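R.M. (postdoc): so does anyone remember the format we settled on? I'll just put the structure tokens first.
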């Protein structure tokens, strides 16, 4: 197994845990308040990580293009999180998460168009299966 796969699996496990804990944390507050609290902690934890592992020197490598792209990513993340939190507060978490995770299909398409990444038949078949799974579970 490649290192990136190990990291991806760890990310998957914690992303699943994150959604469950987040829904439980929204019991007494609205989704925007919960998201603001969560995001404040994320901000603090990331800075703690950077300082702990002495990564502060890496900031000198940033160029304007990188900063702009990361800012756009922050905007899209913010929009995604706002609507994800609204959805999990009022909806069934397993259904909301499934729809949210189907974003992989959007990611694959955009990575081919904008990043010139290559796809193969396994990726195409897997994407189709994800789409069909989404449709089956979302069907009333």
């Amino acid at each position: 197994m490649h290192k990136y796969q190990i990291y991806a699996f760890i990310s998957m496990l914690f992303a699943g845990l994150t959604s469950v804990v987040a829904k439980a944390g929204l019991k007494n507050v609205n989704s925007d308040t919960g998201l603001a609290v969560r995001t404040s902690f994320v901000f603090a934890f990331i800075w703690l990580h950077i300082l702990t592992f002495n990564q502060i020197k890496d900031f000198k490598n940033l160029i304007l293009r990188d900063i702009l792209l990361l800012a756009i990513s922050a905007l899209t993340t913010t929009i995604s999180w706002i609507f994800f939190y609204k959805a999990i507060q009022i909806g069934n978490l397993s259904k909301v998460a499934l729809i949210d995770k189907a974003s992989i299909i959007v990611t694959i398409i955009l990575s081919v168009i904008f990043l010139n990444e290559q796809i193969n038949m396994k990726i195409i078949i897997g994407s189709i299966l994800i789409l069909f799974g989404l449709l089956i579970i979302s069907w009333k």
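R.M.: ...and that's the designed sequence above, right after the tokens. Also worth knowing: The CA atoms of residues 98 and 133 lie 9 Å apart. The first helix runs from residue 3 to 25.
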